[in-house]
Design a protein that fits this description.
Strands 19, 20, 23, 24, 25, 27, 30 and 32 form an eight-stranded antiparallel beta sheet that branches. The protein has a six-stranded mixed beta sheet with strand order 13-18-17-16-14-15, with helices on both faces. By secondary structure, the chain is of the alpha/beta class. It has 26 helices and 33 strands. It is globular. α9 packs antiparallel against α17, α10 packs parallel to α12 and α17 packs across α22. It is about 25% helix and about 20% strand.
Length: about 900
């Protein structure tokens, strides 16, 4: 075993900034991603892809039971006039025009002239995409782009046809991409409010603010029923109870679209999207885009209820999910998309894909995926420049019979049906619609009033010892914590930027932080309040009470995945603040900002009162209205929120859902105190205030070895090769760039190893990567080692680095040249590295994008196989890191 002195400096290569940016900057919706090496033109559609496309893409009939699924009462009778109109229009359309209706590119990757030339059926802005690539684009800028794209789609001088395009946007808690819009609490908070009528009102307001900017279509509601709170999209779920989700879905669809037979898709309503079909909230270990192993009955009973609610309200579009069901990617699952959703349930709108989700289907790439269309996908969401080869390949696949013309015609009929129902052929252009440009509606007072109501009703009081709440506004109130005056943090992900990061308070004009709301109320009552993030105060001005506002940093899909629910694991700075104030004899009210229930027993114990505030959005003064009493001491607004997600008893209790067989939460589903309650009777029997257990119990999921490469790369990782200036995902058995050649070979079984040839002309690297960072702290905290079978064909003359990289521009590596040169050439050996070696180089194991890479500037031929992270493997590691000088 080689021991590395952690106090010494490694001799290390420096990966250039461009490479590091690629290594740690990958992401999905709304961001750039590494592109697979794929055919550049339709003439290069591979026969292998055709073979896969023609193969069965549905599950074996023996494994499914269509009778589980109901025929829904969809509120649309067959409309002969509408269908005849579609027939006449389609009779004039060429194949190219039809396929263009099925292509949905993103605003950063197309021009107005592209729209004029191709006539795309729709387009979108992903999270963090704005007109003119300007985060501070005004509503007028949004309208201008919408108008230009619309006019280009209606210009038949190039593409020969005039069909209005549609703009889709992720307005998931208000029109959240637009500066100044009203941002409501995220869905988890709205679920705690349990008020379907309020939800309908919120959806109608969102529709109005969206229509002001000329946009037709929103990708909401999310109806995921979350099973494992480690999932980074937990806050997008309303409840762990499918019936609440069903009710909410119906309400929000009616709010967005209007009620069928009343004001359906009028000039103040938008097309809605129920998403993500199906089972996104039930993936194993809460891994985003992972595998759902529910039975088919569970799939309907738990995960499909939101579609029952939304489709019976008249939802016009459904978004396919990234996840798999028993290994089958939903984007390519004909049984679910076609047989269940369309044929049995009766959905007659169209199915849109998620961000290049079709590229994840077996046999597919972002640029070519007949399987998805054959399975029932009607619209490809295809951001990045992949839209053009996808368009060309799809046309070619129809011409050569891989995709049936009838399937294209069905998809286009569905798209046109929705456009006609929405009145897009008759409505004025985006700039000339009824409320377009009425910017006074963006963040209007009456909209913010509703948002404040939603904040008040979403708050859940978990603890209120000695009735410390409500607080008199005439008291001396210290407000502390880094979330107290941080509108971006209280709003969470999907707030102006995709992940909700890199925002300042001034990016939310008209909004109110939690502290600002408290300050306003206290000053009006003649009291005294001040903000001190770190809790400091002058000795002569000791506060009567401290309100500490703290919680999770903003995140969105993928980046929010964690491996257990302990809050601030390994960095208990907020707990230290709470304890410090308590030690000075100051009563403490904790306001916890989070996108999910978390294990906060220690923080609960250090607080006299504890409020789960979720992610309240832009109207932070709604929190103050509940925490503070009226000047005369009477309750101003009472707590009304009840937990729609069960609260965990221990960090590893990540799956605790009402109706579970062994249901043992800390705070049960529906729990929530209110003013005037007999608190002793409302505390669950397994909780004693101030004495909650802080023990870290044994994990519910036994930590097992984590294979990264075993015969092949394990999901979600992808193999990549790169140089200082380029990087490609490996998509063939032999792949090269200017420095590196990678090829498969047989070590024990077919293609179970990889040979890397570095030609020495510059920096080259090979590694694994994921679109999203993964939380591997459980391994870094379990004395784990990264182990790889490896050999070299010749002695190394330049350092070969083995490393890992994490999100936000960090990486760590060790030089393994000595180990490789110490054995005979062409001799396999196992090299394992204590993860502590990487940890001591400040690698953040909570955000691992790249769990393995090899890099050198020298000439080398290196082979590897059997790559795995082994818990408790550090003691036997080839390379270990001592904590003291040797």
């Amino acid at each position: 075993m080689r021991t590395v002195n952690s106090m010494n400096t490694f001799k290390r290569l420096t990966l250039p900034a461009q490479v590091l940016a690629v290594l740690v900057g990958l992401s999905a919706c709304g961001q750039d991603e590494v592109k697979p090496v794929t055919p550049e033109s339709s003439s290069e559609v591979t026969s292998a892809a055709e073979t896969v496309a023609q193969a069965s893409i549905t599950k074996a009939t023996a494994a499914t039971n269509i009778d589980i699924w109901p025929t829904l009462a969809i509120p649309f009778a067959k409309d002969v006039v509408l269908e005849t109109r579609i027939d006449k229009l389609m009779a004039t359309m060429t194949l190219e025009q039809k396929v263009a209706q099925m292509i949905q590119p993103e605003i950063r990757d197309i021009t107005v002239e592209d729209m004029r030339k191709y006539g795309f059926g729709s387009y979108l802005n992903g999270g963090g995409a704005y007109p003119n690539d300007d985060k501070h684009a005004t509503p007028s800028d949004w309208i201008e782009l919408a108008e230009k794209m619309y006019q280009a789609s209606m210009d038949d001088s190039v593409d020969g046809i005039a069909i209005p395009t549609m703009w889709g946007t992720d307005a998931v808690h208000g029109h959240n991409n637009v500066i100044g819009a009203t941002l409501f609490p995220h869905n988890i908070g709205l679920g705690a409010a349990n008020n379907p009528e309020l939800i309908k009102q919120i959806a109608a307001i969102t529709a109005k603010e969206v229509m002001v900017t000329g946009i037709d279509w929103v990708f909401a509601p999310t109806v995921a029923v979350v099973r494992d709170d480690r999932w980074g999209r937990t806050y997008e779920g309303y409840s762990e109870d499918p019936q609440i989700v069903k009710s909410y879905s119906h309400s929000i669809v009616e709010g967005l679209q209007g009620a069928v037979g009343e004001d359906f898709l009028s000039d103040q309503h938008v097309i809605s999207t129920v998403k993500h079909f199906l089972g996104d909230g039930g993936t194993e270990k809460g891994i985003d885009q992972g595998d759902n192993l529910a039975t088919e009955q569970e799939l309907f009973d738990i995960h499909a209820q939101g579609y029952v609610g939304g489709l019976t309200a008249g939802a016009q579009t459904v978004m396919a999910s990234f996840n798999s069901w028993h290994g089958s990617k939903i984007h390519g699952d004909k049984y679910l998309l076609n047989d269940v959703l369309k044929d049995k349930m009766g959905f007659d709108g169209f199915v849109v894909g998620d961000w290049n989700g079709h590229g994840q289907v077996a046999g597919c790439t972002n640029e070519s995926c007949a399987q998805a269309v054959n399975a029932g996908l009607d619209v490809y969401m295809v951001p990045t420049s992949a839209w053009k080869p996808l368009y060309e390949n799809t046309i070619a696949q129809v011409k050569n019979g891989v995709i049936a013309q009838s399937r294209i015609d069905d998809a286009v009929r569905r798209i046109l049906r929705v456009k006609i129902r929405a009145g897009l052929f008759e409505k004025p252009s985006p700039a000339n619609r009824a409320i377009s440009g009425k910017t006074e509606l963006i963040g209007a007072k009456e909209h913010r009033d509703v948002a404040r109501q939603a904040v008040r009703e979403s708050l859940v009081l978990l603890k209120n010892n000695n009735n410390i709440l409500p607080i008199s506004p005439s008291a001396k109130i210290l407000v502390a914590g880094d979330a107290a005056d941080n509108i971006g943090k209280q709003s969470g992900g999907w707030s102006i930027t995709w992940q909700g990061t890199d925002n300042l308070n001034e990016d939310f004009p008209g909004a109110t932080s939690i502290y600002a709301g408290i300050e306003q109320t206290v000053k009006a009552a003649g009291g005294q309040t001040w903000l001190s993030v770190d809790g400091a105060f002058e000795a002569a001005n000791k506060p009567d009470v401290a309100i500490v506002v703290f919680g999770e940093e903003p995140y969105a899909e993928g980046n929010g995945d964690i491996d257990n629910l302990e809050y601030q694991r390994g960095d208990k700075r907020d707990l230290a603040l709470l304890k410090s104030l308590k030690a000075q004899g100051i009563p403490v009210v904790a306001v916890f900002i989070s996108g999910r229930p978390m294990w906060v027993n220690a923080e609960l114990n250090a607080s006299d009162a504890f409020v789960a505030a979720w992610l309240p959005g832009t109207e932070g003064d709604g929190v103050a209205q509940v925490l503070l009493s009226q000047a005369n001491g009477e309750v101003n607004e009472n707590f009304a929120g009840k937990l729609s997600f069960s609260w965990p008893t221990r960090p590893q209790q990540t799956k605790v859902n009402v109706f579970d067989k062994d249901y043992a939460p800390l705070f049960g589903y529906g729990y929530g105190l209110h003013y005037g309650a007999d608190i002793n009777t409302e505390v669950p029997s397994n909780v004693v205030a101030n004495t909650l257990s802080e023990d870290n119990f044994a994990t519910d999921d036994k930590l097992e070895a984590l294979p990264l490469f075993e015969r092949a790369v394990k999901a979600p990782w992808r193999l990549m090769i790169g140089t200082e200036t380029s990087m490609d995902t490996v998509s063939s058995s032999i792949q090269s760039n200017d420095v590196v050649t990678l090829r498969t070979f047989d070590k024990q079984v077919q293609e179970d190893a990889r040979l890397i040839s570095f030609n020495g002309s510059g920096l080259g690297f090979v590694g694994l990567i994921s679109n999203f960072p993964r939380d591997l702290r459980a391994y870094s905290n379990s004395n784990a080692a990264l182990s790889v079978m490896i050999k070299t064909a010749k002695k190394l003359e330049q350092p070969l680095l083995l490393g890992m990289a994490c999100d936000r521009d960090c990486r760590a590596d060790v030089d393994i040249t000595e180990q490789l040169n110490s054995v005979a050439i062409d001799t396999w050996q196992t090299i394992s590295v204590d993860l502590q070696c990487f940890k001591e180089q400040q690698l953040d194991f909570g955000k691992i994008n790249t769990p393995f890479y090899l890099s050198t500037v020298g000439a080398a031929e290196v082979s590897f196989s059997d790559l795995v992270i082994v818990p408790n493997g550090a003691e036997q590691a080839t390379i270990s890191c001592a904590t003291n000088e040797q």
